[in-house]
Structures are given as C-alpha cells and as structure tokens.
Amino acid sequence: MSQKSNSLSQLALQKFKKDFWGVFSFGFIVFVGLISIFAYVVAPDNSEYANQMHLSIHSKKPGFTIEILTISQKSEVEQSIFSQVFFGKKTQDTEIPISQYSIEGNMLTYTEYASDGLEGMSKSLNMSGVSESDLISNKTFLFGTDKYGRDLLSRTLVGARISFFIGFIAVFISLVIGIFMGSVAGYFGGRVDAIIMWFINVSWSIPTLLLVIAITLALGKGFWQVFIAVGLTMWVEVARVVRGQVMGVKEMQYVTAARALGFNDFRIITKHILPNIMAPVIVISAANFAAAILIESGLSFLGIGAQPPMASWGAMIKDHYNYIILGKPYLALIPGFCIMSLVMAFMLMGNALRDALDVKS
Q1: Domains of the chain
Q2: What DSSP string runs through 171-205?
Q3: Which parts of the sequence belong to the ABC transmembrane type-1 domain (predicted)?
Q4: pLDDT profile of the chain (361 residues), mean per 10
Q5: Could you tell me the pTM of the whole model?
Q6: CB contact burial 131-165 (16+ within 10 A = b; e otherwise)
Q7: Distance between first and last Cα of the chain
C-alpha cells in the first residue's frame, strides 16, 4: 500500500515538473520568500523598516544618484547580529544629501542638496579623526525615492515580508479551523452537520473584507492582528471542501474496515480519511495564499493594516496613488506590480498542483 502511495506521489511530482509555469511560479515564490526573510541583508537601506528619510530628495526618479554625508552619533545602540539581519539596524546616524563639499585641514564644508534649482545651506563640520570615505558616500536609488525621500527599492524588499508571511499564517489558521470543522461536519453528519453548516453559511454571507475590517478593529491595528483577522475569515472555503470530501470518503471500504477493527473516530478521521482528501485542500490553500495577499494589501490601503513606519506594499500604494496623475506613476506601480506578480505565481502554482494531483488525468 505504501509503495502504491509513493508511486502516486512520484507521478504527481513528475506531472508537476512538466508544467513550466507551475515550476517557474514555485521558483519565484521561493525567491520572494528568501528575499522577505533576508530583506535587510540585500536592501541598500538596512535601517529598521528601511525608514531612513531624506526629505530634500523626495520623489526622485529611478536611478537617481546623490552624495550622502553620514554623521555618526557617539553613542551606539547595542544590537545582536541576529536582530540586525532579521529586524534591521537600529541606527542613530544622520544622513544628509549634499550637492558639493570641500575639505580644508580638519574642516569639511558642504552644501546641502536642494531640489527645484534652489541653493542649499552651506555648513562646516569638524572631521578630526574621521576619514573622508567614512563621511561621504555616493548612493544610487535604483527604484528612486518615495515622497519622504526613502529608498523605494529597500521599502519594496522589506514590504515583501508582510505580503509573503501573511499568506503562511492566514492559511495555517484557516487550515486548522477549516479542516476541523469540515471533517467533524462531514463525518458525523446529522445535527452536528446542520449546526456547523449554519455557522459556515452565516460566515459565508458576510463580505470578506467587511468581516476582516470588523475583526481588525476588534483586535486593534497592528502586524499580528491583521494576520489573525485574515486567517479567521478564510476557513469557510476550506471547511466546505473538506466536508464534501469527507462525506464521499467515509463510505469507502477502508473506512468501513477501520470501524470494524474498532478504531475510534479520531484515528479514522486523522489517519485514514484526511490523508486521502488533502489534494483539493492543497490546491485551495494555494488560492487562499493569493487571496490573503490581496486582502492584506486592501487593508493596508485603507489604513488598518500594517502601521507606519512598517513597510507594506498596500501602504506604499496608498501613499503614492495620487502620483499616478502627477507624472510619477512608478511610485504606485512598482508595489502594485509586486502584488500582481506574487498573486499570479500562487494562482499558477495552484493550477499546476490541481492538474498534477488529478487522479483522473
């Protein structure tokens, strides 16, 4: 029996490997996952939340290059390497965009950058004990800067963390609740099924976004609250699918044999029924990943998702959607394209999994 099961799994894996878009989407999702985990390692701005502001160079086009004067504070914040890698560097350094500078002895004279043809203020700084390379650096903003002068590339990379991980947490919550409710309703039937289905239908009738907003307002605004709220609204689809599958499988001969051997209901459901109905659950989980990303983006756009200064693709669109008609559409289109590509990757992978796990094909 195990050999047959393994061969079926291998056949499904071989069919999945033959689907170019499915494999490509899976690779893209893994790439985004690695980026979201190690965002602060690859981001040009590795400060906490990539929140280093330079108001004088706000809304600059992609590829903008400027010289930056970095003034380090004497007191440094103690922080472990682990914290810097995964949560960003807590820095008190001051970064000042400059248009020109000169050095005479130990004195550094610089002119602050000013846009729109204006001339910035000239100031002097004692640079005793500090080299020129430690103070002055040339910085290029590949994606340009947002309306606060923050590096848009860094914000995009760090924002991938929320959009990616909300899928995992929301889908995990929906699977735990949905599989439990669906399996209990489908296996026991009768009054238990009627009560659970009534609860499912009531939850189904409430618009998803409205329900998420209500739960978010009840739990409060924040990072984890959004994850929990989205997960608590996505279990209904899983429960309905699991219920239908369990109702069809519970009359199979191997389930009847398990009852005849005296196995309890918990073992029959967990050991014999659920392993044989996971194919459609895996497929719907891939779709729920995409739905969770879209819901979180919508919540962030409405201002009740991840709160500033935390980077989020939805919040980035909210901050810059007005710039679409002001000649700088890339400020909103770049995070929008990121959302679209990640959602499409999950949907394409879900379609590939559906074809690979279809026993009739």
Answers
A1: 2-34+154-356 (1.10.3720.10), 54-150 (no CATH)
A2: HHHHHHHHHHHHHHHHHH-HHHHHHHHHHHHHHHH
A3: 160-350
A4: 58 88 95 93 91 90 92 74 87 86 86 83 83 87 93 94 86 92 92 93 83 80 79 88 91 87 89 86 87 86 82 90 89 93 91 78 53
A5: 0.86
A6: eeeebbeebebebbbbebbbbbbbbbbbbbbbbbb
A7: 21
> Using one digit for the tens of pLDDT, what is the confidence trace for 306-328?
788 888 898 899 899 999 888 89
3 state SS for 10-45: HHHHHHHHHCHHHHHHHHHHHHHHHHHHCHHHHCCC
Query: What is the C-alpha separation between 261 and 325, in angstroms, rounded?
Result: 70
State the Cα–Cα distance between residues 120 and 116, nearest whole angstrom: 11
The alpha carbon dihedral of 53, 58, 60, 66 has a sign of negative
User: CB–CB of 226/297 below 8 Å?
Assistant: no
Find all residues with CB under 8 Å of 314, minimum gap 6, and list them. 163, 296, 297, 298, 299, 300, 301, 305, 306, 335, 339
Q: How many CB atoms lie within 10 A of CB 107?
A: 12
